[in-house]
Give the backbone structure.
Amino acid sequence: VKERLVEHWLTRTNERGDQTPFCQLLVAQGYTIVHVSPHGPFEQGKDVIAIGPSGAPVAYQLKAGNITTQRWRTEVRPEVEELLDIPIKHPSMAAHGDHESWLVTSGNLADVVRVEIHDRNARCVRDGKRPLRVKVGGELIAEFVGAHERYFPVDPPDLKRFLEVYMADGRAELPKSEYAAFLVSMLPYNDPALPMKARGQAVSSAILLASYVAEPYRKTGNYWVVAEAWLVTAAHVLPLIDSTGADPRDWEQTLLLVEAALEQAVEQLTREVVERQGDLFEDGLFDPPMYRFRTTVLAGWLAGGLLYKLLKHDAGWRDEAVLELIERRLLPLILWGEAAVPSFLNLMWCYGAFTRTAQRDMVLATVLRELVQPLGRTDEGGLLNPYYGLDIGVRSATKSLRDPIFDPGHTGYGRG
Amino acid sequence: MPVGWTMLPDFPEVKTELNRKARILVKLRTALSDPVLRQIRTTLQHEGDRPTDGTVDGQVRNVEYRQIESAMQFSKSEMPDLTVEQIFARLEGAAQDMTRQMAQSVLQQISAATDEAGTSASAGGQPLTFDLYLESIERMVVEFDEDTSQPTFQIVVHPSMAHRLQELATEWQANAEYQARYNALMKRKYEEWREREARRTLVD
């Protein structure tokens, strides 16, 4: 099952989708990731730059699928030439240093390509240069399978739960509670005697499984859910790391990978909605009642993305276009339940960062009013408590609930 | 997902359920809300593109399908705040509009068929009289219930006429002469029906 599932995922993803798990694979093998390319013009054939366990710099060009002769000549060979010929340029590495070059593909090489690389490598060795090293789909599958160790779900209930999340509709919401339940079942929270190495393997496996889970959403361009998948993963991995009492720097590589995946998803989401803000939502018969729910969460992610950049001291954090988009297209937000409060807080903090104090105070007042108003009421009204997610909020608003809501009118904040 | 739209999480399951409810609503409204339509047996045509119908005297004719449609409009500005209840209310309005169209179409077809068969009677814009009522029944092929021997025809009038017809019916029932003429006619119609039934070729 493990091999089949990894193969299923690997044959469906592309170089963007397998970048994070590939990096996690390297981390698990003792590599230090130095740079992950955002696939821009300055990539110079290097999707991933790492330092190997021996301290040698290594650069990788990642490809998805088979490399045919035509693809090799038009797309891959020029990038491989840059990979081989242009030295790694990175502040943490010695300038003009030699590096190992890898072409990694989830598919196979056409015979003509294989022979050409072989002949080229022979010339490189003769000329005292480093050859191009190649890793193909079969080897990758074996390495991914090996990296899961014993943390791949094999018990039927866990495997069923994982497969249900993995096979979910890429257009829909992430089934967060099912995914969270799966992570809780697979991560060894209750084994204090577990060696550090085994914890590392569990975390590594969780990161790889998160990549599989995110794949159907990434493929449909559902970046909001890709970000959610990484956020849920981080929320479950962090307590395990924390429980080790180890130096957080020991886990830095893994956490940075998760953060980078999350950041990339939010950036892709932001770029897409800014570019297509006139066509944010479809106009099907039942799209309107869901509109405010979606704009509320979207505004939360966009504002959160700006705040993230601010906290990272990113010079471009003050993106007026994003705030304008929120104001023109997404407001007013709807506080459909306490789970929507983070969206309001993100927007409030964002207004604060942009020194728009009147708007900031108005958002805060809205949240407080909605939270406080139901407290004195005895009817069934009021906010959904924070354990009810967006899906329940939408079902409640559209009279499509499958089960009655328990204790809807008494907020968790109110009790606190 | 149509090309060109941003990919934000959707709620396909909820939408599927709501669409199913909407289809059921339209179906129920169109099938049940009209007193005439709800008595007509419907058949789903699985093959071919044209139906036929038959008359009591064995004529088979091709029938053209008529498209029944109704439009709902939502302005772009009202869309973000539309509730499910509002959408269903408009759907109900559209369903009623389609029901009206279907009922009108059925009555027009009946009118055309009776004109063609020579069984129609017109008051020529004048008030309905007992004589005209009797003449109408006279021209009809009247069927009777096998168990109760009661006539099975129905009188369909515009709602605005219903009250007046009730008054006339009370008036006519109280008139002994009218009752005698009516009973005599129905007796004759009953005999005609029995004769038709006796002549009817049984299938298998």
